[in-house]
Design goal:
Mean pLDDT: 90
Distance between the termini: 56 Å
Low-confidence stretches: 17-24
Radius of gyration: 20 Å
Structural class: alpha/beta
Oligomer: single chain
CATH superfamily of the largest domain: SGNH hydrolase
Strand order of the largest sheet: 7-6-8-11-12
Number of domains: 2
Number of helices: 12
Shape: globular
Helix content: 25-40%
Order of helices and strands: HHEEEEEEHHEHEHHHHEEHEHEH
């Protein structure tokens, strides 16, 4: 029985890691596996199904692959008999609102990252950027993050913004181990993207044809950004869809080089938030060696609350955002960037 549990746990772990999902097991993994197999036979789908009060939400972008469209939305998620609804406001600039009232300030806090800092699944007022704006009225908090955005996306965004980034502005970057797969747009990432929230809530045909940016290092050690069509994830290999597998070691190097490219932009105040991963994570060790401020938002003794998970989409809930905001604020204060 112990051997069966070990094998079941191993298979379950790799399934969830492949989908970049958190897992909070309760009970027997073998029983859970049998239940999933039975559901598959009956045709029960374990994928999150999305709907919205008006469409589309996502659209293609020549630079970033995809972007989010301005408007106020009510998003509904259905998953395994559960339902979750949240409100989402996107400003005219195509960024998630961090305040319902316009904020004008010579200083800005620019927050990049993926769905974690975007706050997918959480109402506007519960997200880390919104809470930071409420606490820092002397700053204009700009939420540049979006689902599945990577360090490469952050680099592309900052390259466009850097002429307007002032000496008092603060840029927040995000890292967790799945960032490495995002940065190289590996095959698992692309396949999951095809059935993800973005394609479900946008023009499916256009989004399948979009070109996802990814980082790569050539034989001479030079970093560059390539693009691959999303539909290549399920198409027969062609010259256009050539995207050879990348080792974990190479993906880590790509992430480090993408961060190096951001550092080379000479932005005065850079902060990296660490959402998960071990203390000896090579990317974090590299960033510390470069002298960057690291804001540790990992779970330590229940802070942030690691069981605050939205049951439908598996993202962190509002209590996590509240405590993550507190940890980020403390890191900024210790670095002397804010009062």
């Amino acid at each position: 029985m112990a051997a069966i549990e070990l094998v079941s746990s191993y298979v379950y772990f790799h399934h969830y890691v492949g989908d970049y999902q958190g897992i909070h097991p309760a009970g027997s993994m073998a029983v859970a596996m049998i239940g999933r197999a039975y559901d598959k036979i009956r045709g029960v789908n374990h994928q999150v199904k999305m709907s919205i009060d008006h469409r589309p939400l996502f659209a293609t972008s020549d630079t970033l692959g995809f972007a989010i469209l301005p408007g106020r939305y009510k998003v509904t998620e259905h998953f395994e008999g559960r339902k979750h609804v949240f409100d989402l406001t996107i400003t005219d600039t195509g960024r998630r609102a961090s305040s319902y009232a316009p904020v004008k300030s010579p200083k800005r806090l620019l927050i990049t990252g993926d769905s974690a800092l975007f706050g997918w699944g959480v109402d506007d007022e519960g997200t880390v950027p919104w809470l930071m704006q409420s606490r820092l009225p002397d700053f204009e908090v700009v939420n540049l993050s979006l689902n599945s955005y990577s360090t490469v996306h952050a680099l592309l965004q900052l390259q466009q913004l850097v002429p307007r980034i002032g000496p008092d502005d603060i840029v927040v970057l995000e890292y967790h181990p799945a960032t490495n797969a995002f940065n190289v747009a590996n095959s698992i990432f692309l396949r999951n993207f095809l059935s993800g929230y973005e394609v479900q809530l946008g023009d499916t045909a256009q989004l399948r044809a979009m070109k996802v940016p990814f980082g790569m290092i050539d034989a001479g050690g030079r970093f560059s950004i390539g693009r691959i069509r999303l539909s290549c994830a399920v198409e027969a290999p062609t010259a256009e869809c050539a995207h050879p597998p990348v080792s974990e070691e190479t993906a880590t190097q790509v992430t480090e080089r993408a961060f190096d490219e951001i550092i080379a932009l000479n932005i005065r105040h850079l902060v990296v938030v660490l959402l998960s991963g071990p203390d000896d994570d090579p990317v974090i060790a590299h960033l510390r060696s470069r002298g960057l401020t690291i804001a540790d938002l990992r779970t330590v003794d229940g802070v942030p609350e690691d069981m605050d998970i939205i049951p439908t989409d598996k993202h962190s809930g509002p209590f996590w955002h509240r405590q993550a905001y507190g940890l980020l604020l403390q890191a900024l204060q210790r670095a002397g960037m804010v009062n």
